[in-house]
Amino acid sequence: MQFKFHMPTKAYFGEGCVIQNGSELAGFGDKAIIVTGGKSARASGALDDVCSVLTQNHIDFTIFDKVENNPSTNTVKEGGNAARQAGARFVIGIGGGSPLDAAKAVAVLAVNDIEPLQLFENKFANKPLPIVAIPTTAGTGSEVTPYSILTRNDIKTKVSFGTPDTFPAVAFLDPRYTESQPAEVTVNTAIDALSHNIEGYLGKRSTPVSEILALEGIRLFGSCMESLHSRKFSSQDRADLLYASMLGGMVISHTGTTIVHGAGYNYTYFKGVPHGKANGYLMAEYLRFNYGHAREKIDRLLAVMGLTGIDEFDTFILSLTGKPPRLSDEEIAEYAAITMKQRSTASNIRTVQAADLENIYRNVQR
Ligand code: NAP
Ligand code: ZN
User: Is the domain of 152 the same as that of 197?
Assistant: First the structure.
């Protein structure tokens, strides 16, 4: 047995964890930049808690709240300039995956005079500023991953960068911050967490430790299926989904994602479909495609969710996502070609050709 397990993020989980452990921030310096979107930080209550802790610890701060969904390289460039101008010593990301990923890019750009496209080279002369991550969705697990996923218009897709230095130093996971999410966002992000756990569990790079984390994440999603279906969430569901999301983040930090993510980015880039929902469209077909190569594992993950087979999985996820947008033959060929260029495609347990991806896209819209 051989594996490496590396999880440098100190994660605090539970209601009130920011206020209870706010002194953690004192060690990072006397000036912070808060990176967030237009509403999540305020709506969730996270911003109030963070501001009160910063004030208590005599830390000055500035707020950059221009992060859009699926952040662009231009936005993180602007955020990097704002951090530099403010003299920020550390970055606090508050929000869903979009602001958390943007915070990582801002942490690099604040101290490295490079163009955003150079982020993807993963080599930075200066160590990024320390990052504190506070999720307000339960899906991406970005608070415990080194990845920052940015939209690249030059190659019409989303691409990630990340090094060991872009793991957040500290993550605060308070399930109450996820209560203000619209139901749609709760459902889509939960599917994203499920896809991290499943793709990581089945991927070529899975390890004994990541498998245990992934199965627990999948089980927790399974325990919330009724609530996801009815779109009514108890505080237990909120905690379980946030925990499943964190586990999924720890999993993909070791395994990466595979073709569900690679192929899903096209629905997001070209059709504006939210990230988790895009993954949801593809997951059942992904399981069917890999079944002959990972029969035991797929049977186990379905059993852990309390499901009897891939068809039942398909029906359930479809009930959450609805049908995908119809793609023309030209679109299918283009999306498959773009997915083939994603690094993550090589991590799939079964070797993937462009024709396989075309079939998956076709089957999805049956
Ligand atoms: P998101 O794009 O961060 O947020 C979706 C929407 O939900 C935004 O409008 C956001 O508001 C709103 N929202 C978030 N939390 C809320 C709350 N508590 N109350 C009210 N509204 C709230 O969604 P996401 O699915 O979490 O993140 C998706 C991004 O993460 C994608 O770019 C994806 O590629 C990336 N991702 C990263 C990783 C990783 O490892 N780093 C893994 C998977 C996915 P605002 O407008 O205020 O933001
Ligand atoms: Zn994802």
Answer: no
Other CB atoms within a 10 A radius of the CB of residue 348 amount to 23
Q: Looking at 177, 210, 232, which one is the last position of a domain?
A: 177
Residue 192: which of 136, 133, 257 has the closest Cα?
257
For ligand 2, the distance from its centroid to the CA atom of residue 195, given in whole angstroms, is 7
- State whether 169 and 191 are in the same domain: no
Residue 19 has pLDDT above 90, yes or no: yes
Q: What is the pLDDT of residues 194-220, one digit of tens each?
A: 999 999 999 999 999 999 999 999 999
Q: Are residues 69 and 167 in the same domain?
A: yes
Q: How far is the CA of 264 from the centre of ligand 2 (A)?
A: 9
Last residue of a domain, one of 151, 177, 203: 177
**pLDDT at residue 366 tops 90:** no
55-103 confidence digits (pLDDT tens) = 999 999 999 999 999 999 999 999 999 999 999 999 999 999 999 999 9
Is residue 344 lining ligand 1, measured as CB closer than 6 Å? no
Summarize pLDDT for 96-143 with one digit per residue, the tens.
999 999 999 999 999 999 999 999 999 999 999 999 999 999 999 999
What is the Å distance from ligand 2's center to 141 Cα?
8
Domain total for the chain?
Answer: 2
Q: Is 248 in the pocket of ligand 1 (CB under 6 A)?
A: no
DSSP E strand stretches across the chain: 10-13, 31-36, 60-64, 90-95, 131-135, 148-152, 157-161, 170-173
Measured in residues, the chain has a length of 366
Residue 178 near ligand 1, beta carbon < 6 Å: yes
The DSSP code for 123 is -
